[in-house]
Structures are given as structure tokens and as C-alpha cells.
Write a structure and sequence with these properties.
Strand order of the largest sheet: 26-29-30-31-34-33-32
Number of helices: 32
CATH architecture of one domain: 2-Layer Sandwich
Structural class: alpha/beta
Number of strands: 34
CATH class of one domain: Alpha Beta
Oligomer: single chain
Shape: globular
Length: 900
């Protein structure tokens, strides 16, 4: 078990320049190891965390050595434990985490412990930003109306989260209407350096949203994880991660006039995708860094999931400190941050000779080579230079159906759909824009592109240009600061004039919350099979994501979103064709409305002020009238409503006692599902809409929920009854027991009945039978999803035997008490002659002292087959979790047994 930190010898005191001290810190230079000087800055953050948390149980000295020896160890895919400084949640992914904390309190109470001990052990911030939809656009009162809809749809979830904000210490809930989680993180929540009870250490964060990486632009190490890893981090447990390779990305020169940060990020995304950075860190350096504002850096960091990296990291330098001043952080805080990072050699000072850092591979970009561009029509990394857009669009119409093709027959490409919009005759063609949205964390945190868009609107209005009234235009800022500087600059009125009224403060169109199109427009698209376009300043444009009726979706900078809304089509060459007709029928071109970098910089300088950030964030937790009127119980234990179909008390701790259940094998288990290779968490975890004939639909109908109110699995993540029924409910799932039939069913082996996976699992449970799953290679690949492990556990699955596992999904299975086993190399279910109709026995030693990570285990079937598997409990910590029945049970018993 845990022992004293062996690195106490390098604990130093950080003195203030004027006397006194900032606090204590673990000094990396005091290790006197020349290898540390050459480490990438991002790896130094992992190193400091391992040193500070070293207890020879969860984090060992050998883990510290692996990180110091990064240049040698990272190519070997070694695993290390990581304890982030804090956790970030949004409302969709945060609800199940708060549900688990609430039911842990109940369990603690039932076992006679102090339920108030169940609190996040690191700071947790939850920002409600994923629920607002663009129900109303192009209206002065859009914000109010959309928020009323938001509260009506999400009252139960919001009430539960409000209870959590009062009941738990160390948890801040930022109410709806405050902004986008990643922008609030950047402008307000990010610490850069923590000072906790006199201990200084770098800020680091894991978040249950993939674009958590935006904070990397501030020199804070952060990335997205699944719910179980986030809960583990909240409760003080280490996350297991592969020590990553780091791609060094050198930036040179400066951007040309008229080129935006969005153009830069789309260029970098394409380069990094081509280079191959999945699972790696990307670290930016070079003289071009000082030319990039903090907001530009954050734009690039935000898009890490789109180029596939775990992080896109910008170390702290003078630009970071300037931004901290701008956003209202105090002088004392900034002095502490700079002093600490300089003392630990984690600050970049361009006036000092630069140590040549070692990277796994290298890329280089001259910023002057970046040109205006968009990405699409279906993927973020399919960059199209603006000057080639018209040619590319025609190629997409001709190409066969795919990422760059719609296969529209030649004779149909000039089709005109005639319809009437509010009494006016209208025409719609392929490539016409029907949605133009300035939205998403990527761009709305960046004053230069937001004010650039407003300047485009101003010039357009002055020249007499208009946006066609059937285009759904919207502006969804990432924080209230944006509204303040758009008003101070007196530019919001021009955006309003073109229909870009503020619709709400949240993700909106970027996550598909674009709301309905006008019925006349929708009918014209569907009746005539028009390839309609959406242009948005978001980070994702996958098919079907933005809106079901926009088959072409382009990512563009906010100023370009305005330009395309004015043009009304993506089928235009901005260099040679007019964007529209102005006053007196004069042709207006793109160049006539595009502001210079100097114009933008002038407005940013005069309109974006520190007081705006201070005023916005001083009021952020005060909420709004609708949030403040939500009536919630005040107790520290949650009063579960048994009739709720959104929030339900999960059965994880039913019959839990103070004695751990101990190690246990599997006896006479049936095979619930028999899979091949590449079963992803999307196959396993409930996602998307609830199918009308599914067990989840049956459950909701039985409780009086109307079909139109089913909502999605995502919105019902806080109800285990719905989520268990949606586990393995993917209509594309291939289960070998069905012999070629595709879909969410399986065979109940004793009777031969074909039933839904949920009904089969419940039948086995009622008969007292355990179940296992057989699988091929890469079981659980894709995004980490907590319900991909929670769901199978609730279905009664005791073990998964696979050729190989995706790393995080394997650890999630362990966290939920499911045994992961790997076939030996060269073997799988087919080579061993397993059909899934057998019964399976897995023998494990009965004592923790007799078992070790990665040992061999024998599996025997009732058909006389016997084979050896590798037990994939990979660390002693994971064995401890399994011994307790899961990670949450382990934490509860440890807290009850703790002396303080």
C-alpha cells in the first residue's frame, strides 16, 4: 500500500521577489538530471505530477524514471499513471458523474460512514452549455425564447445539477446561458499554476468533452476522457495512460493580411492529419509563436481531436501572461505563475538562449504560406483554399458519393427548386446556404475573428448588401464577454441587421443543436433532393451532425460565415464573382467588405478590456432568473424521484457491505454475444435517438412518456434503466450468434430464442446465470464512453475474452468489476473452435496475495475445451479495484476506513 513520497528531498520553497514566500514546490532542476532539460514542456507536466504524487502504490518511482527517460521509453508504448489537477464536465457527460457521486453518498450512509466525505477530491467545474438549441433565430428576443425552451426540455436534469452544486464541496456548476465550457475554462477556470494549501504545481485538466484541449493554448495540459476516467480523477485515483510521443511543430514568420486564425488551424489540421498524430502530443515552438495571440493558439489547440492528437500544446510565455492580465487574473497570481514556471524551467523566454528540445518527429509551417480557406463538405481536415472553392464544389457534385462527393447527375446539377417563403417566390439550387452560424468554442473565444466578422457586417450594411431571409443565421458567443465587446465597439447592430442576432450562449449548431429549418425551406430541399449547404465557424462538420437536411457542411472563420451568408451560396468564386448587388445595383465584391488585419487589431485594442472579463465572471455563478427559480431539495443526500425517466438511482451498491467481495472467477457462464474485430464503444454504448421498437422505448412508453418526448440516449444518461436497455442496441452491430443477421439481438442459448440483447441478458439474470462476451481484436476502440462499461455490468456480463482491447476501455471494464482476458497470440474464438454455444468457467486465485497483474488464467468450457488467456489486470491498483467489486466501491471503503 501507499508509503511516504521518496522525492521529499527536492521539495523547495519559492520566494517572493519582495520577501515572503509563494509556497513549496517539487523542483525538477534539483534532480540534477540532464535528460530533464531536453524533455518537451508537455512531458515535464506529466513528470512533475508523477513526482508530487509518488506513493509507491498508485504512482511508483519506476513510473517517474520512465517519464525522465521519455526519449527511450515513449516509442515502447509504456503505461504511466497520471493524476490531473482538476476535472471539467459539461451537462450531457456530467450528469452520470454527479448521479454516481449522489448514489455513493447513499452507500456511504447505508454503511454507517459519513456521507459528507463523498466529495470530489480535486476541483470539478461543470458548465451547462450543450442543451440550448436555435429554436428562434433572427430576432431581438432569441436569447430569452431559446432559454425558455431549454429549461422546459431539461428541467429535471438542470434541477439535479443545481442540487449537486449546493450539495458537493469542490464542485462549481456554471448555470445555463453563461457560455461554452471551453471558453469559460480559458477565460476564467484555468489556473495555469495551482497553489493548494501552500503547495505549487502546474494546472492540468481532464474533461468529459473532446475539445477540452482548447486549454492547451494557455499552457495547461488538458484533454478529453470518458466518464469513468473523469470520475476516477475526481475521486483521487490515477488514470492509466500511454506515455505519448511528442511531435514538435515549428512555426515561423507571421500571417499575411486578411488571413485569420481559422485559416491557420484548418491548414495545421490538414498537415497534422497527414503526418499522423493519433495518441500523440503536439507541441508548438519557434519564432512564429510570438506572432500568435493567445486566442489564436487556443483556436489551434481546440482542434486537436480533428487532427487526432491527444493535445496541441503551447508552453507558457509572455503572450500567456498578457492574456492572463487581459482576462482579469490578479497581478499576484500572475507573479506566482511566472516565478514558479521559471524556477522549474517550464517557462519560455525568447530573450534567453533556447535549449534544443528532443521531439519524436518534427513539422514546420511558415505562417506567411497560410491562405484563406474553408474545410468540407464532410470532414474538418478536407481543406479547400478559398480561391479553389467553386472548382472544388463542382468536383464534389460530380464525384461518387463519399467524403468529397455527392454523385449528382450532370443533368440535375443546375436544378432549380421553386417555392414560396412567407408569401415571396424563392429559388433554391445545389450549394445554396440555408444555415450560416457563428458558433462553437473554436472561434467564439477569439476577439480578432469575432470582431472581424462584425467589421464584414458593417461594410456590407454600408454598401447595401443583405442576407436572404430564408437563410437561418445565428450568433452563439462562447461567453458574455463577446457581447460586451461587440456592444462597446458598436458593431453588434450591423450583425443584427444581417440576421446574426445572438441566439444563446452555448454550442448550438456545432453539436447539431441548429433547430428546425423553416418548413417551406425543408420541403424544398427534400422534395427536390437539393444538396443544401451550411457554413459554420465550428470544429466538426461530419455528415448529419449540423442538420439532417444540410448534406454539405463547411467550416469557416466567422468573417467568412458572414460572407457566405451574403453570397447565399458556396458555388461562388470570391475573386472574380460579385458577392451581391449593393445600393443602386452596384456589384459588390469580397474584397470590398474584407477588413485588413490593421483594422481588426485597432478594434480589438479599443474594445476588448480586462474589466469586461472581471464583470462577466464576477456574476457567473449568480445564474439567471430561470436557474434561480428552479426549486431543488437542500439535503446532502439526493431525494430520488422513482417516477423520473431522466435521473435514476443506479443499483451499483445494492447489498454492499464493508467487506470486499474478494477475487472471484466465473462459473458456468453463457456467451451473451460473440463478436469479431473492431467492435467500438459506439456499438456498445447507447447513443443517438431511441428507436421506437427498442427495449428503451418500451420502458418509456410504459411510464407514460409520449413517443415525441423520447429525446435521445445522451439526454437520458442519468437514468441507468434507459441506458442498460440501450447497451448493444446499435442497429449495425454484428453478432456471430445470429449467423449473418445484423442488429441488436442475440440468442438465448438454453432455449434458442432470438431476443433483444437486453431481454436475453435479463432472462439469464432471472435464471441465475452469469454471462461473458467473446470478441476479436481492438475491442472497445473509438471514443472512451462510460456507458460502454457500465451497460455490460448492468446486463450481468462478468468477463470479456478478446484478442486485444482498446487501452482505456479495458481499464473502464476493470473499473466496473468486469474481468478482461486476452487470447494468446495467434489464437482466437475461431481457431479454438468456440461457437459461443458453450458454457465457460474462468478460475482465478481466491486471494489477492496469489494473483499478479498479467498472469496466465485457464478457461474451460463444458464441451471439454481448455485454453490459456492473459489476465488483463495490468497493475496492482487494478487488482485492488477488482477485489472490491469496482473502483467506486474501492473508494467508498477507503474513505470509511480513513482515519481523517
Amino acid at each position: 500500500m501507499a508509503s511516504e513520497n521518496p522525492f521529499k528531498r527536492i521539495l523547495k520553497t519559492l520566494e517572493k521577489p519582495d520577501g515572503g514566500e509563494f509556497g513549496k514546490y517539487y523542483s525538477l532542476p534539483a534532480l540534477n538530471d540532464p535528460r530533464i532539460d531536453k524533455l518537451p514542456y508537455s512531458i515535464k507536466i506529466l513528470l512533475e505530477s508523477a513526482i508530487r504524487n509518488c506513493d509507491e502504490f498508485q504512482v511508483k518511482s519506476k513510473d517517474v524514471e520512465k517519464i525522465i527517460d521519455w526519449e527511450i521509453t515513449s516509442p515502447k508504448q509504456v503505461e504511466i499513471p497520471f493524476k490531473p489537477a482538476r476535472v471539467l464536465l459539461q451537462d450531457f457527460t456530467g450528469v452520470p458523474a454527479v448521479v454516481d457521486l449522489a448514489c455513493m453518498r447513499d452507500a456511504m450512509n447505508n454503511l454507517g460512514g459519513d456521507s459528507n466525505k463523498i466529495n470530489p477530491l480535486v476541483p470539478v467545474d461543470l458548465v451547462i452549455d450543450h442543451s440550448v438549441q436555435v429554436d428562434l433565430a433572427r430576432s431581438e428576443n432569441a436569447v430569452q425564447v431559446n432559454m425558455e425552451f431549454e429549461f422546459r426540455r431539461n428541467k429535471e436534469r438542470f434541477g439535479f445539477l443545481k442540487w449537486g452544486s449546493n450539495a458537493f464541496h469542490n464542485m462549481l456548476v456554471v448555470p445555463p446561458g453563461s457560455g461554452i465550457v471551453h471558453q469559460v475554462n480559458l477565460e476564467y477556470l484555468g489556473r495555469v499554476v495551482f497553489n493548494t494549501n501552500g503547495m505549487l504545481y502546474p494546472d492540468s485538466v481532464v474533461g468529459t468533452d473532446s475539445h477540452t484541449t482548447m486549454i492547451d493554448g494557455l499552457g495547461v495540459a488538458g484533454w478529453g476522457v470518458g466518464g469513468i476516467e473523469a470520475e476516477a480523477a475526481m475521486l483521487g485515483q490515477p488514470m492509466s495512460m500511454v506515455l505519448p510521443g511528442v511531435v514538435g511543430f515549428k512555426l515561423l514568420g507571421k500571417l499575411r493580411d486578411g488571413v485569420t486564425a481559422t485559416d491557420l488551424v484548418l491548414t495545421a489540421t490538414q498537415m497534422l492529419r497527414k503526418h499522423g498524430v493519433v495518441g500523440k502530443f503536439v507541441e508548438f515552438y519557434g519564432e512564429g509563436m510570438s506572432e500568435l495571440s493567445l486566442a489564436d493558439r487556443a483556436t489551434i489547440a481546440n482542434m486537436s481531436p480533428e487532427y487526432g492528437a491527444t493535445m496541441g500544446f503551447f508552453p507558457v510565455d509572455h503572450v500567456t501572461l498578457q492574456y492572463l492580465r487581459l482576462t482579469g487574473r490578479t497581478d499576484d497570481t500572475i507573479a506566482m505563475i511566472e516565478s514558479y514556471l521559471r524556477a522549474n524551467k517550464m517557462f519560455v523566454d525568447y530573450n534567453e538562449p533556447q535549449v534544443e528540445r528532443v521531439y519524436s518527429s518534427y513539422l514546420e509551417l511558415h505562417l506567411e504560406d497560410v491562405e484563406p480557406c474553408v474545410s468540407g463538405p464532410k470532414r474538418p481536415h478536407d481543406r479547400v483554399p478559398l480561391k479553389e472553392m467553386k472548382v472544388d464544389w463542382h468536383a464534389c457534385l460530380n464525384n461518387k458519393v463519399g467524403f468529397k462527393g455527392f454523385a449528382v447527375p450532370k443533368e440535375s446539377q443546375n436544378k432549380v427548386a421553386e417555392f414560396t417563403f412567407h408569401g415571396t417566390p424563392v429559388q433554391l439550387r445545389h450549394g445554396d446556404v440555408v444555415i450560416a452560424a457563428i458558433t462553437s468554442c473554436t472561434n467564439t473565444s477569439n476577439p480578432s475573428v469575432m470582431l472581424g466578422a462584425a467589421l464584414v457586417a458593417k461594410k456590407a450594411c454600408e454598401l447595401g448588401l443583405e442576407v436572404k431571409p430564408w437563410i437561418k443565421t445565428s450568433l452563439a458567443p462562447g461567453s458574455g464577454v463577446v457581447t460586451k465587446y461587440l456592444q462597446t465597439s458598436d458593431l453588434q447592430k450591423y450583425l443584427n441587421q444581417l440576421g446574426f442576432h445572438i441566439v444563446g450562449y452555448g454550442c448550438t449548431t456545432c453539436i447539431g443543436n441548429s433547430g428546425d429549418l423553416d418548413e417551406a425551406v425543408a420541403s424544398a430541399i427534400t422534395d427536390n433532393d437539393i444538396v443544401a449547404a451550411a457554413v459554420l465557424s465550428g470544429n466538426r462538420n461530419f455528415e448529419g451532425r449540423v442538420h439532417p437536411l444540410t448534406r454539405a457542411n463547411y467550416l469557416a472563420s466567422p468573417p467568412l460565415v458572414v460572407a457566405y451568408a451574403l453570397a447565399g451560396t458556396v458555388n461562388i468564386d470570391f475573386e472574380t464573382e460579385p458577392i451581391g448587388l449593393g445600393k443602386d445595383g452596384k456589384k459588390i465584391f469580397f474584397r470590398d467588405i474584407w477588413p485588413s488585419n490593421e483594422e481588426v487589431a485597432h478594434v480589438v485594442q479599443s474594445s476588448v478590456l480586462p474589466d469586461m472579463f472581471r464583470a462577466t465572471y464576477e456574476a457567473i455563478t449568480k445564474g439567471n432568473p430561470m436557474w434561480n427559480q428552479l426549486s431543488v431539495p437542500s439535503g446532502t443526500l439526493y431525494a430520488w424521484d422513482p417516477t423520473s425517466t431522466y435521473i435514476h438511482d443506479p443499483p451499483y451498491f445494492k447489498d454492499m457491505s464493508m467487506s470486499p467481495p474478494g477475487l472471484h472467477g466465473v462459473k458456468n457462464a453463457y456467451c451473451l454475444l460473440n463478436f469479431g474485430d473492431s467492435i467500438t464503444t459506439d456499438h456498445i454504448s447507447p447513443a443517438g435517438s431511441i428507436h421506437k421498437d427498442s427495449p428503451a422505448a418500451r420502458y418509456l412508453l410504459e411510464r407514460g412518456v409520449d413517443r415525441r418526448d423520447f429525446n435521445s440516449y445522451g439526454s437520458r444518461r442519468g437514468n441507468d434503466e434507459v441506458m442498460a436497455r440501450g447497451t448493444f442496441a446499435n442497429i449495425r452491430i454484428v453478432n456471430k450468434l445470429l449467423q449473418g443477421e445484423v442488429g441488436p439481438k442475440t440468442i438465448h442459448i438454453p432455449t434458442g430464442e432470438k431476443l433483444s440483447v437486453f431481454d436475453t441478458a435479463m432472462k439469464y439474470k432471472s435464471e441465475g446465470h452469469d454471462t461473458i462476451i467473446l470478441a476479436g481484436a481492438e475491442y472497445g476502440s473509438g471514443s472512451s464512453r462510460d456507458w460502454a462499461a457500465k451497460g455490460p455490468m448492468l446486463l450481468g456480463v462478468k468477463a470479456v475474452i478478446a484478442k486485444s482491447f482498446e487501452r482505456i476501455h479495458r481499464s473502464n471494464l476493470v473499473g466496473m468489476g468486469i474481468i478482461p482476458l486476452c487470447f494468446k497470440a495467434g489464437e482466437d474464438a475461431e481457431t479454438l473452435g468456440l461457437t459461443g454455444h458453450e458454457r465457460y468457467n474462468i478460475d482465478l486465485p481466491s486471494s489477492v496475495n496469489e494473483i499478479r497483474p498479467g498472469q496466465d488464467v485457464t478457461v474451460v468450457t463444458d464441451k471439454g475445451k481448455s485454453f490459456t488467456c492473459t489476465l488483463r489486470f495490468d497493475t496492482e491498483v487494478e487488482l485492488a479495484y477488482f477485489n472490491h467489486g469496482g473502483i467506486l466501491q474501492y473508494v467508498i471503503r477507503n474513505l470509511i476506513n480513513a482515519k481523517h
